[in-house]
Design a protein that fits this description.
With 170 residues, this protein is α+β, with helices and mostly antiparallel strands. The protein has three helices and six strands; from the N terminus they run H-H-E-E-E-E-E-E-H. Heme chaperone required for the biogenesis of c-type cytochromes. Transiently binds heme delivered by CcmC and transfers the heme to apo-cytochromes in a process facilitated by CcmF and CcmH.
Length: 170
Amino acid sequence: MTIAQPSRPVAARRRSTRKQRRLMLIGAAGAVLSLAAGLVLFAMRDTIVFFYGPTEITQKGIAPGTRMRLGGLVEKGSVERGPGQRVAFSITDTTTTIRVNYEGLLPDLFREGQGVVTEGVFEGAGRFRADSVLAKHDETYMPREVADTLKKQGHWQPGAAGPSPVPATR
């Protein structure tokens, strides 16, 4: 009696089974990673926002002591400078206003009517204690080269673009 040698297709089946197991393992690992990423993003859904406006803070009922970023416009006539580097001002989104207390140097672009983003702790009752203040550049800023190009193409509308273009530094 002779023992039959294993045929080639059986060996090929074993190799494909190994490949299938490897692909199933990779697929399962990918599914677990996707699920983990989804859970992390779901848990961070409120903290992913770059900053909250005053109205959003009052509508969400954020608890005092919460660390966050507050953004909006510096209300005209609200800046009060105290002793040392203490400054108090109000941030508004034209609907709601929150009073901000800050101690430190303010950015050069900080002024009344200008957009700012502050980072600090919400103290409740419309008060915010800021650790840092970032002044936002005017949204209508346009380098002179871009404005000149638009003028040459006939697309320049001085009234629609806001203030005149600021020269770009080189």
